[in-house]
C-alpha cells in the first residue's frame, strides 16, 4: 500500500499541491494544480483540495504504478486519461 503525503498552498485562483508517494522502498514526487472552480465542483464545501488530491491519487494508484503518474499536471487532466474518474471522485 502506497503512503501519500499531500500538502497544498494557495496559488492565484487555486492551489499548487505537492504529492509524495512512497511505496516498496521508493518515492515519487508530483505537483498538482487545482483551480478553485474545480474544487467547488468536485468537492463541494471543501476548504482546501488536500482530501480531493489524496483520493484522486488513490484512484490513480489503483490503475497504474506511481512511476507512470505525470510529475506535474492539472488535476482535471486525470479525466482525459480515465473518463470515469470524475464520477468516482465526486463526493
Q: What would your notes on this structure say?
A:
With 91 residues, the chain is an alpha+beta fold. It has one domain (3-89): Double Stranded RNA Binding Domain (2-Layer Sandwich), CATH 3.30.160. Helices cover 31% and strands 34% of the residues. The protein is built from four helices and four strands. It has a four-stranded mixed beta sheet. The longest helix is centred in the middle third of the chain and has 12 residues, at 50-61. The two termini are 23 Å apart.
What is the number of helices? Answer: 4
CATH architecture: 2-Layer Sandwich
Estimated radius of gyration: 12 Å
Adjacency order of strands in the biggest sheet: 1-2-3-4
Q: Key terms for this structure?
A:
alpha+beta, Double Stranded RNA Binding Domain, 4-stranded mixed sheet, 34% strand
Summed up:
The chain has 91 residues and is of the alpha+beta class. The chain has one domain: 2-Layer Sandwich (Double Stranded RNA Binding Domain), CATH 3.30.160.
Compile the SSE list and pairings.
Blueprint: E1 3-10, E2 14-23, E3 26-35, H1 36-42, H2 50-61, E4 72-74, H3 78-81, H4 85-89
Parallel strand pairs: 3-4
Antiparallel strand pairs: 1-2, 2-3
Amino acid at each position: 500500500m502506497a503512503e501519500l503525503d499531500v500538502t497544498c498552498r494557495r496559488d492565484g485562483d487555486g492551489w499548487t499541491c505537492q504529492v509524495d508517494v512512497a511505496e516498496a522502498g521508493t518515492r515519487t514526487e508530483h505537483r498538482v494544480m487545482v483551480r478553485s472552480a474545480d474544487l467547488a465542483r468536485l468537492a463541494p464545501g471543501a476548504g482546501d483540495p488536500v482530501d480531493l488530491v489524496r483520493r484522486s491519487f488513490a484512484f490513480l494508484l489503483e490503475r497504474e504504478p506511481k512511476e507512470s503518474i505525470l510529475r506535474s499536471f492539472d488535476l482535471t487532466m486525470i479525466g482525459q486519461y480515465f473518463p470515469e474518474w470524475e464520477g468516482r471522485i465526486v463526493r
